[in-house]
Write a structure and sequence with these properties.
The complex is a heterotrimer. Chain B is an alpha/beta fold. Chain B has 9 helices and 10 strands. Chain B folds into 2 domains: about 150 residues, P-loop containing nucleotide triphosphate hydrolases (Rossmann fold), CATH 3.40.50.300; about 70 residues, no CATH class. In chain B, strand 9 and strand 10 form a beta hairpin. Chain C is built from 12 helices and 2 strands. The chains are: A mainly alpha, B alpha/beta, C mainly alpha.
């Protein structure tokens, strides 16, 4: 019942945002808001993988970037974005499935998993950065190296390539996507699959001794999270354009921070954390001589040292995570 | 009759240390078997080999005559082998009922709930169903793990030191419980507490320095001179299995 | 013939660079089970320490070999005190906190020195291998790597400080019972590892250029080198540097530097699949 209530609340908030924000925000601010929403989707993806799957993924930015690039390249080649969207979900999901197969079936420990996912991100970053020049193109789409793909096309009405969506509509699409991801995540956690994932997070050995193939469930939630991160990358590509920074350590670090601050083991916390911290870094960016990286870094250090349970849950006194079953409901 | 579970020349080496050395034993359906031995006899290693947590260096493990050596834990559990570890291994973040429902892997949601409640009832902890596992006392945690192991009606249950950390009263209750469970399940108990063994056992296998020292009826084992010596720490033949 | 020598020299210098840039991380991980994700930024700070003191008129060798490790060692001491000490035994929290530190250091240095590449040209000139010229500084790096390997080994193996450190890492409670204060040992170990990172940063600076974000291009490689190496930190880091450095340098020759890195990662992942405990989980287990 509680989760039904939460889903209804989320729908109301999303509808309110879809109705209000385009009326009160200027176009530039609205595009920024769309970026924040895409970040919220990204935060949600890691909330699922790390907070509920217990998988220490330092490379969620890799799937974010892959989703963005897959979308841009597919959209340019198809000259229509209708099919580019599923491609943006599929490419990161496939990469995650392959990587996850090696990691989970190799029974690599947490720390090594963090290392491998982080390394993947850094190497993709270096790789994409090095793709300047005309020999680096996929079909009609030049990868553009350091500059990214400034010609990333915005979404068009499905099946109608001549009719791109205006930024206002893209904002609505983004909020709707966030809502959908949230509901999907909630339902996943309620399902048998989700409950088993939580059980594995709680005690992997025990789950295995009860007859569950832990590797399979981890692979499942890891792949789902990667697809969601790909969706976030697609949305991001629609407001800005794709560039190698999507793979950067700054981004992968940021995602971790949103989830840490929002609270590990909750879904809504990281979403709120992503939006608030983005507001904070944007504001910090307007200050002279303050580097957003410095602020984020200090926030992360303090979050780990002072409030390892997450800043938002501690503020709201929400010990929800400790209530029986709240993780699985 | 094919035995339910059997090992053939099972051996586990760690570097130069042979923790389990050429152990062959069989357990039949409905049997209650105790595996005992002093600390360092290789009980825990044998337990880990049987439950797929360690891959034996040599020898075979057979389930109804089928070779299951080196299988993963989950695959072994799926055969119908219930496993209870020494330190209660539980889902701290879940409630008691949710934990037991998870153990009922094959059942539908509703049937799992009913069966889980029935199991909790049988173990006398139905009142704890909605409590969070992390908040339970040690003895209660042991019972929750029992419930998780028993719920799916495994054909055999392997228990590693089930009375570790239990009070005398709880131990007596566990002994009763194990005898009750034995009516429906074959059971292997890995234990070193002799009093507890006396209370539950029919057939006892004694391990010493990784080898089977003696395997016989409980009374005869407990009367055996060598078993006493082993427990008192005297050197006994067969000996010197630790090669470096 | 000459080309083989020249390529061999390149490969050796690739291996040496990898070893130098991984050693600090390896020591801190091997001795304390702490993964210092700010390792790359410690390299960066070492490079800045060297370049700034050289610009201030200090002899370039003194700046690189003395000032850089000293400055970063002191920074390491402070970091240990403020952050690491509070998180012992919480491996993942330590990783997260040092990641935060890494971002903060990049931000702070960018604010102070700007996001521009500074650099100094490699001291020493070049020498000829037959028809090819090779940088004498690369040769120096190879010797520096060998020197660092044996230096650390000698300290750990033959000095009483090394013995205390090894004992504490084996069993902190026992060492405490013998009158050693584990906190001090950890602090000194972390500072020593940091100093080695600082030295490494200064040593690679002539090749890499000095920017606030330079650490990010080394941390990944150092990370997988240490993990591929496994438990024995010196033998492990050395063997993993050898293998991965060779793979990456050959990959770079065959294609581009980025593919060299990709191949290195691929080899590391395959190795971890085959040897989940790292190279020294299987081989050289008794080594340091």
């Amino acid at each position: 019942m509680r989760s039904a209530f939460e889903i209804i609340a989320a729908i109301i908030v999303a509808l309110a945002a879809m109705f209000m924000l385009p009326r009160i925000l200027e176009l530039f601010a609205l595009i920024n808001a769309t970026v924040y929403v895409s970040m919220a989707v990204l935060a949600l993806s890691l909330a699922l993988v790390w907070g509920f799957g217990g998988i220490l993924c330092f490379g969620q930015a890799a799937f974010f970037g892959l989703g963005g690039y897959a979308y841009a390249v597919a959209a340019i080649n198809f000259a229509d974005t209708t099919l580019a969207v599923p491609v943006a979900l599929a490419v990161p999901a496939l990469v995650a499935a392959a990587l996850g197969y090696v990691m989970f079936f190799g029974r690599i420990s947490d720390v090594y998993m963090g290392a491998i996912t982080l390394t993947l991100t850094l190497i993709l970053f270096n790789f994409v950065n090095s793709t300047a020049g005309d020999q680096w193109r996929i079909g009609a789409a030049p990868l553009g190296g350091f500059n990214g793909i400034p010609a990333t096309p915005p979404l068009n009405f499905p099946g109608d390539p001549g009719n791109p969506l205006p930024p206002e509509t893209i904002f609505l699409v983004a909020v709707f996507a966030l809502l959908l991801c949230y509901i999907l995540a909630k339902l996943t956690l309620r399902s048998r699959f989700g409950r088993i994932c939580v059980a594995i997070r709680e005690n992997e050995r025990r789950a295995e001794l009860l007859g569950y193939d832990v590797r399979f469930y981890k692979l499942g939630i890891f792949t789902l999270g990667a697809a969601m991160a790909g969706l976030a990358g697609m949305l991001f590509a629609n407001c800005v354009f794709v560039s190698p920074t999507m793979f950067s350590l700054f981004y992968s670090g940021q995602i971790i921070i949103w989830v840490m601050v929002g609270g590990l083991g909750t879904l809504i916390g990281p979403v709120i954390g992503a939006i608030l911290l983005n507001l904070l870094t944007t504001w910090a960016g307007t200050l002279p001589d303050i580097n957003p990286s410095l602020i984020l870094g200090v926030v992360l250090v303090l979050a780990v040292l002072m409030v390892p349970k997450g800043v938002l849950p501690s503020l709201t006194g929400g010990l929800g995570r400790l209530r029986p079953g709240s993780g699985a409901r | 009759m094919t035995p339910l579970l059997a090992t053939e020349h099972l051996t586990m080496r760690f570097g130069g240390v042979v923790a389990v050395d050429d152990v062959s034993f069989t357990v039949n359906a409905g049997e209650l078997r105790c595996l005992i031995g002093p600390n360092g006899a290789g009980k825990s290693t044998l337990f880990k080999c049987l439950t797929g947590q360690l891959r034996p260096s040599a020898g075979r493990i057979l389930w109804r005559g089928r070779d299951i050596t080196g299988w993963d834990s989950f695959a072994i559990a799926r055969l119908g082998i219930g496993i209870k570890t020494q330190v209660p291994s539980l889902f701290d973040g879940l409630s008691v009922l949710e934990s037991v429902r998870l153990a009922l892997r094959r059942e539908t949601r509703e049937r799992a709930r009913i069966q889980a409640m029935a199991t909790l009832d049988r173990l006398g902890i139905a009142d704890l169903a909605l409590r969070q596992v992390a908040l339970l006392a040690h003895g209660q945690r042991q019972l929750v793990e029992f419930a998780m192991v028993v719920a799916p009606e495994p054909e055999i249950i392997i228990l590693d030191e089930p009375t570790a950390g239990m009070s005398a009263e709880e131990t007596a209750r566990a002994a009763r419980l194990i005898r009750e469970l034995n009516a429906q399940h074959a059971i292997i108990v890995v234990e070193h507490d002799m009093k507890f063994i006396r209370a539950i056992a029919k057939t006892v296998t004694v391990l010493h320095q990784g080898r089977v020292l003696i395997e016989d009826d409980v009374e005869r084992v407990l009367a055996d001179r060598r078993v006493h010596d082993v427990y008192l720490g005297k050197a006994v033949a067969p000996q010197q299995q630790v090669t470096v | 013939m000459d080309i083989f020598l020249a390529v061999g020299f390149q490969v050796l210098s690739g291996i040496a660079t990898l070893f130098i840039t991984s050693l600090g991380l390896a020591i801190i991980f091997g001795m304390m089970r702490v993964i210092n994700l700010a390792h790359g930024e410690f390299l960066m700070l070492g490079a800045y320490a060297a370049i700034l003191s050289a610009r201030a008129g200090l002899n370039i060798w003194l700046a690189m070999l003395v000032v850089a490790p000293l400055v970063v060692g002191v920074i390491g001491l402070i970091v240990e005190r403020l952050i690491i000490r509070r998180l012992y035994g919480r491996m993942i929290d330590t990783m997260l906190a040092t990641w935060g530190l890494s971002l903060a250091l990049i931000g702070a240095v960018t604010m102070i020195f700007g996001n521009t590449v500074a650099g100094f040209s490699a001291p020493l000139g070049s020498f000829a291998i037959g028809g090819f010229t090779a940088s004498a500084y690369a040769l120096f790096l190879i010797f520096a790597a060998i020197f660092m390997l044996f230096g650390v080994w000698i300290v750990l193996r033959f000095t009483s400080a090394g013995l205390i450190a090894r004992g504490t890492m084996q069993n902190a409670e026992m060492a405490a019972a013998l009158g050693v204060a584990p906190e001090r040992v950890y602090a000194v170990t972390f500072a020593a590892g940091s100093a080695l990172s600082g030295l490494a940063g200064a040593l690679i600076a002539p090749f890499s250029g000095v920017v606030p974000t330079m650490g990010t291009s080394y941390i990944a490689k150092a990370f997988i080198t240490v993990i591929t190496g496994g438990a024995a930190m010196l033998a492990g880091t050395f063997s993993a540097s050898f293998l991965l450095g060779a793979v990456s340098t050959f990959g770079t020759f065959a294609t581009t530097p980025v593919f060299g890195e990709v191949m290195m990662l691929a080899v590391a992942i395959v190795l971890l699949r085959l040897l989940p405990q790292g190279i020294t989980g299987r081989f050289f287990r008794r080594a340091l």
